[in-house]
Amino acid sequence: MTTRWTASQIPDQSGRVAVVTGANGGLGLVTALELARRGAEVVLACRDVAKGREAATGIEAAVPSARVDVARLDLADLASVRAFADGLPHERLDLLVNNAGVMALPHRTTADGFEMQFGVNHLGHFALTGLLLPRILATPGARVVTVSSFAHALSNLDINDLNSERQYRRWVAYGRSKTANLLFTHELARRLAAAGSDVVAAAAHPGYSATNLTAAGPAMEGRHTLGRVLRLADRAVAQTAEAGALPTLYAATAPGVRPDSFTGPSFLMWRGAPAPSWRAPWTLDDRASTRLWTESEHLTGVTYEGLAA
Fold it and tell me: Is 250 an annotated catalytic residue?
């Protein structure tokens, strides 16, 4: 791919329907804005509907012709995931961007009792993708793009302790959840190919980008000084959310994106234009991806109809 790929090179998206999770701010908002700018009808899937509506208003101000909708989606609650999928009015779905996530939180659990980072970053998106799969499979040329992180390199998955019950270390748990994103993409791409589908499952990461994720953990613990320091660091060394969203937008729209590809910033996985990104060997482990898939179906109660093992 060119090292100078920018949002201006996004192909025309007219007639296409996209769902972007966590689209009320940061990378998700930029992703939704640029897709809308190119003509896609975009559903902003947000836990906080009020913030989602503010984001939609901002998109419509920037792109008067934009077609955007807001729907509630709390990835930390499987009932909310099912309600979102049931309530989505579109029969087709050209693009699902699994963007929302949490990072390095103090120990918390989801409404269903899962460790929060694994529950939101992986299980919520696994369930959402499976519930929307019939529409995705029915749409020629559809794509599923899941946002991982270079921090997946912090830890392989422990298939026997997916919820970090033995020991919780926030950054290890985050790394595991991002490894799970890549194993999910790997297995989804394999199953789609086996089914003869032209749907592309790909992954992307933003490098080090300035978003509200960095300071969220310290804020939950009342560590406001640390939060301020981290925000200053974001301003000093991180790239903008606009730059950080480019790998996702590339994976979502550029011609010729390969199944199970991993796109990130070109310079040391840190910043720069979209490029093929290094990924840890364990994220390409067929046995691990199959076991994670089986466990994820069991934990969420969501099975992927039409995609055999």
Answer: no
The number of beta carbons lying within 10 Å of the beta carbon of residue 226 is 14
Count CB atoms within 10 A of the CB of residue 278: 10
273-291 pLDDT, tens digit each: 899 999 999 999 999 999 9
Residues 96-118: tens digit of each pLDDT: 999 999 999 999 999 999 999 99
The Cβ of residue 225 has, within 10 Å, a number of other Cβ atoms equal to: 9
168, 174, 208, 250: the catalytic one is: 174
Where does residue 244 rank: exposed (0-12), middle (13-18), buried (19+ CB within 10 A)?
Answer: buried
Question: What is the 8-class DSSP label of residue 258?
Answer: P
Taking the CA atoms of 97, 102, 107 and 109 in sequence, report the sign of the dihedral they define: negative
Please tell me the distance from the alpha carbon of residue 233 to that of residue 107, in angstroms, as a whole number: 24
| Model confidence pLDDT, tens digit, residues 240-250 | 888 899 999 99
Tell me the C-alpha distance between 96 and 145, whole Å: 6
Q: How many Å separate Cα 165 from the centre of its chain?
A: 24
Question: Please, is 306 exposed, middle or buried when counting C-beta atoms within 10 Å of its C-beta (0-12, 13-18, 19+)?
Answer: middle
d(CA 125, CA 94): 16
Residues 6+ apart with CB under 8 A from 178: 121, 148, 149, 151, 152, 154, 205
The DSSP element (H or E) to which 276 belongs, if any, is strand 271-276
Nearest partner of 71 among 43, 30, 91, 97, judged by Cα? 43
The residue written with tokens 């490894």 in the block is 179
**How many Cα atoms are found within 13 Å in the side-chain-facing hemisphere of 191?**
20
Q: Are 109 and 115 in contact (CB under 8 A)?
A: yes
Under 8 Å between Cβ of 53 and 32? no
pLDDT value of residue 140? 95
Q: Structure tokens of 140? A: 């020629």
